Amino acid sequence: MLPSQSSDKGLYMGLVAERAAAQHGDQLIILDHDLALFPEAGREITYTQLAEYIDDTAARLYAAGVRQSQHVAIHKSNGFDINIVSSAVARLGAVPVQLSPALNAESVLELLRRLGAPFLVTDTAKLEGPFAGAPLGEITNEVIVVAGSHPGAISLADLAGSPRQEPVVLHADLPALMTHTSGTTGLPKLVVHSARTLHGRYRPQAKLFDMIREHETVALHVSYVHSRMPLALAVLLPRGHKMVVMNDADPKKAAELWAATRPGFIESHPNSFMEWEELADHPLKPLASVKYFSTTFDAIHPSTMHKLLHASERSSPLFYQIYGQSETGPLVGRGFTRKTALGADGRCQGYAFPGDTKFKLISRNGKEVTRDNPGYIDVQAAGRALGYFGERERYDTQVHGGWWRGMDLGYRTEEGCLHLLDREVDSIPGIHSTLEIEDVVLGRLDELTELVVVPGPLGEAVPVLSTRDDRPLDRDRWKDATTRWPQLAEPVQMKITELPRTATMKVQRIELAARLRALAIGQSS
Length: 525
Fold this sequence. Notes:
Blueprint: H1 13-24, E1 28-31, E2 44-46, H2 47-63, E3 71-74, H3 81-91, E4 95-98, H4 105-115, E5 119-122, H5 124-128, H6 136-139, E6 143-145, E7 154-155, E8 175-180, E9 190-194, H7 195-210, E10 218-221, H8 228-236, E11 243-245, H9 251-261, E12 265-268, H10 270-275, E13 292-295, H11 302-311, E14 318-325, E15 329-336, E16 348-352, E17 357-362, E18 375-381, E19 387-388, H12 392-396, E20 399-400, E21 403-412, E22 418-423, H13 434-444, E23 448-455, E24 461-467, H14 475-481, E25 492-493, H15 509-524
Parallel strand pairs: 1-11, 3-4, 3-5, 5-6, 6-7, 10-11, 10-12, 12-13, 13-14, 24-25
Antiparallel strand pairs: 1-2, 8-9, 9-19, 14-15, 15-16, 16-22, 17-18, 18-21, 20-21, 21-22, 23-24
Helix pairs in contact: 1-2, 2-3, 7-8
Domain AMP-dependent synthetase/ligase: 18-389
Pfam families: AMP-binding
GO molecular function: ligase activity
């Protein structure tokens, strides 16, 4: 990271709620689920209660043996209490390691070994389910359950009333948080953040929110283990926004929740927004109050933005798309309106954030980088992580003279907009951009709820799709929608629940391609 790109401040996760409560203590956080850690909390908690829960949890973790700079892996069933635990760990000056509830047991065990005997905060559902019989005692310092009891584990419930501890503020450049990469390309990498790099990620997001004049209720359906969630709290809590924090993306449940809470701002993953397209015509009009939609995890299809913007009854609603990476945080962004969304090029990710991010394109073959000859996207960002834990050499191979190369391929337009075509590992010979195909076809076929193009057993481009209510695909409509790409193989239809996904709901393309190969082998044997 170049000195001009670094942040001059630190973001301390363990103090965010406490400081916000001093100004906005009575403001509400509404949940669509109960907290396993604090079941008495119910579905509404104030900022003051959130700060109290974090302080209380820190006291219990200290009583369990957690100390400054130690690693505390958090891998439990999905819920907002993941962030309460993470903030409490940070309050002690220890390092929270946020592991997705969706990670398989084999991956989690390997990551725990890499961490070198960390504390593990989990729950009985994990211990009695995927980790039954696993040698956790051999690879962890202590196993801690958030509620209930389990043989050999410490229960936080038994440590209620433990003496409170003064918060520990580490140097801004020391490890303060670990998250992991999406896992779309194998075992996730542990990404190490410091208070300074977290503040670097915070800056562009805070600037975006400062442009919003209304004091909106904000609905969040965001992976609790992604760095975006603690940053969302760091942006929203000090500004005193009422929040709606969601576990469940089910459209019917979302419709009822939003009809009751009337959010003006919704942030989620692109795939969740796709699921919510059907709410555009819902009788409860759950999207009528929404002025701003935002996604920071992946490119979103123009047709999705168009449908959701037109479901809003607010004047001039805006859909803001931000492109970033686990290692860097947000990199570029742009807004779309009712007039511009449908006609937008879905590959256009936006523009760099002045003072916070930069990007350039590097040729792969010595020729000029263009739409037809995409290059590597190299970036500088104030939020670039310190490295990969236990894999320094792997991280360093992607650093080129102060620039980070995330292995995405794209080009820059004359207007300066970054266009993302594919990840290099996902590119298919003879296909200009799998993502572009997906954008166009999803815009033409409303009956599709998902479409990904992956390499088949022979390297061919195979469209894998899901439909609304799992209805059979209309082959004539499919043929009409895909005439531009005669090189596509016959489509494979799957239930959307069968698609392998990451914590942020991205389809794991390499895993999906591997399943297609295994299926082909099984059919030929």
